[in-house]
Amino acid sequence: MYRKLSNIDFKSFIGQKVTEVNTEKNVPLGMSFETAGLIIECPWRLQVANEIAIGYSDCLQSPKRYSHKDVKKVLIGKRIMNIVHFEDIADLIIEFEGGISLELFHDSNYFEGWQLLGQGDNGFCLVSLPGGSYTY
């Protein structure tokens, strides 16, 4: 399957550090950057050096062993190096320093999957919509 990269400009996110990760139980994974935020309501995986360190299924199926606290340990203070967005299915990859990446996989025809929100003058708002499309 051919996946088309979007032409959205993510330069305002590049270099921002992760300042907070939501660690509350039974709440979607979310995080704050220096001037932005991300809410994740779809499957995801966190890779470190090309190996899956933790994923959505781990937290869901084995909550005593895995939680959003593990995500926080890996990501807190890490800078965003690149963001890749596929417009044909609304998947998102955020690459961090140190060979770390967070991949979001929209998987619903009925629910939104994730929201990437910027702060300040640009009013950046990218949302994956039901069915795999997106709005910007």
Kindly describe this structure.
The protein has 136 residues and is mainly beta. It contains two helices and eleven strands; from the N terminus they run βββββααββββββ. The strands form two sheets. The protein has a six-stranded antiparallel beta sheet, covered by helices on one side. A five-stranded antiparallel beta sheet has the order 5-4-8-7-6. The mean pLDDT is 92.
List the total number of helices.
2
User: Can you summarize the main beta sheet?
Assistant: 6 strands, antiparallel
Residue share in helices?
A: 10-25%
Secondary structural class: mainly beta
Q: Which strand order spans the largest sheet, edge to edge or round the barrel?
A: 1-2-3-9-10-11
Rg over alpha carbons: 14 Å
Give the topology string: H per helix, E per strand: EEEEEHHEEEEEE
Summarize model confidence as the mean pLDDT: 92
Through-space gap between termini? 24 Å
Indicate the proportion of strand residues: 35-45%
Which stretches of 5+ consecutive residues score pLDDT under 50? none
Gross morphology: globular
The total count of strands amounts to 11
InterPro entries: DUF6188 (IPR046179)
Protein name: DUF6188 family protein
Pfam families: DUF6188
Organism: Metaplanococcus flavidus
